[in-house]
Amino acid sequence: MYYSSNKDVSKLVKSLVGNGWSYSRRKKHGMLRSPSGEVITLSLTPSSDESYQNLKKVVKRFLN
Fold first, then answer.
1. What does each C-alpha distance from 42 to 4, 15, 34 come to in angstroms?
2. Predicted TM-score (pTM) of this structure
3. CA–CA gap between residue 23 and residue 49 (Å, rounded)
4. Which of 63, 28, 53 minimizes the C-alpha distance to 42?
5. E strands, 1-64, where?
6. In this structure, what is the dihedral angle of CA atoms 52, 29, 39, 12, given to the nearest 10 degrees?
7. Were both Cys, which of 4, 22, 34, 45 would link to 9 (CB 3.0–4.6 Å)?
8. Average pLDDT over residues 13-18
């Protein structure tokens, strides 16, 4: 499944989905839902090189 145009973001999302998270795609954004119900919205075509780092920070916050 296509998660993002950024390969690092796609790898991270793929590993999260494999660990019980769910992913749904909207028009221009994807939605990650953690097993406990928190939602993270991410762009399918991120314009910033920092998008991967920002996503990692948000996921880390939910995991702690």
1. 8, 15, 14
2. 0.88
3. 22
4. 28
5. 22-25, 29-33, 39-43
6. -30
7. 4
8. 96
